[in-house]
Amino acid sequence: MANKVAELRSLMGGDEETSHIVDMWTRYKDQMRDRIELWKEQRDYVFATDTSTTTNNSLPWSNTTTLPKICQVRDNLHSNYLSALFPNDDWLKWEAYDQDAAMKKKAQGITDYMQNKIRGGKFRKEVSKLLYDYIDYGNVFVTAEYQAQITDEEKPVAQFVGARARRISPLDIVFNPLATTFEDSWKIIRSIVTVGDLTVMSQDMPDNNYLEDVLARRKQLQGLAKSGAYSIEDWDKASGFQADGFGNMKEYFESDYVEILEFWGDTYNTGTGELERNKIITIADRATLLRKIDMPSTLRTAPVHHVGWRLRPDNLWAMSPLENLVGMQYRIDHLENSKADALDLAINPPLVIAGEVEEFNYAPNSEIHLDEGGAVQELGKNLGAVITAENSIQGYEQRMESFAGAPSEAMGIRTAGEKTAFEVQQLQNSAGRIFQEKITSFETELLEPLLNSMLELSVRHMDTSETVKHVDRDTGIQLFSTITSEDLKANGLLRPIGARHFAAQAQLMQNLTQLYNSPVGQMLTPHTSTKQMAVLVEDLLGLGRYDLFKPNVAIEEQQETQGMVNQAQENLEVQQQVDIPE
Description:
Largest sheet: 5 strands, antiparallel
Distance between the termini: 127 Å
Radius of gyration: 34 Å
Shape: flat
């Protein structure tokens, strides 16, 4: 048996560095067990159809209704976050850091190229998934990857080529939560893929050519596992661990699934004292070292980005907006079902039967026959508690909305007395501060570095020119231009400004409306350019595509209309003269 174990270890190819990374993954993942259990409980409440699948199932109620308030809060936050990030098509800007990068042709080429890749790579759909992580887990992880062209001369097909975003599940990553920032910490990312997926990934993505070695070694180990020459104990002793989600290593190798662990960061050899910076180490089957390379990114950082919803002191694992609402959801369901049971008892109360009473149906107009000394009596009931429970449920639901930072007009602090329009507007602005702060953090801390990582990937992998589509802002005509990697090289930064622009637009429009409805606005009217005001409104409301505003266009159209009216009147008079009999 010892020889078999040694042979398996040799085939797996594990070494000290590989074992160290696998041990780090296992240790940090085990430390997250309590947090994962909390996430599972929260998920059960979000997707519950009744209380039988939640922790409320232990209560002694006959009713099992759940009021899906926590699910409604989740959907409300997601729809508002997504609408704020992408309020229109003009949410991406290029910010140049030198004169060459600021040239209109250069800036327009970069934004047009990225807009095309964002549409083709289903960026909005991936961001929607990231927002659900933001709400459910309070932690979002994402990376950028490049998909290359598949050449097939016999069957040419249209396909996406370029950089795209890829979500990383919070359950599939570990890092040092005590690091100063997420960028300063090492990361280990786990992925489970099928052999077929590995084949596609090795062909489609230039950075994944090493996966061909995985396929070859996997085929060899899978054949050994299915041959029956080695027992379950041999595999367990050879590996010294179990793959998550599989009963044992023999079952794992017999399956068509492959586990990949990818380490990003700095490594230090305690034996030699050697420090290696910015490395990528990829391990398959928790034993086989596939590659160890320098990070190819010119940014010299891992293209893995993170943002947290409610930050914790001295801990990079953040808290989600739903996490501390689970107890309130439990309370709401408790009150709802106790209220329902109380109403059931009031409608159909228990009966006290004393003495000899013949069997009867408890229904309207039924007859009850009693012997001497027999009696039937309803137990007393009090519906006051039912009304109290109903009021408590409504209060809990309102507070859950505010605690999660959902945009609501009722969240501003209101003082006693009547309010002017300006004071009401102040309250509404205050109501959205939590919401605006959270979505701005998502935009600046996650989307901004993600988009720039995608641009860097495009510059590094783009070896031919590409044709991109854009719309001329002045004429509205759809145009096509050719972009090369040199056109994408510039000193600057891509900035998503959807959420920030959205808030600034709303604030500015509200302030202008309030100002020009006041006496001060009447004083300023003679000094205000109506042409420039039209330009401002067109930009704020995103009406440029409709070509509504032109200098004095209303006068021209009125003149045209009046001319048509005059012409019609002349035609009518001529017709009347012709119709007069001689």
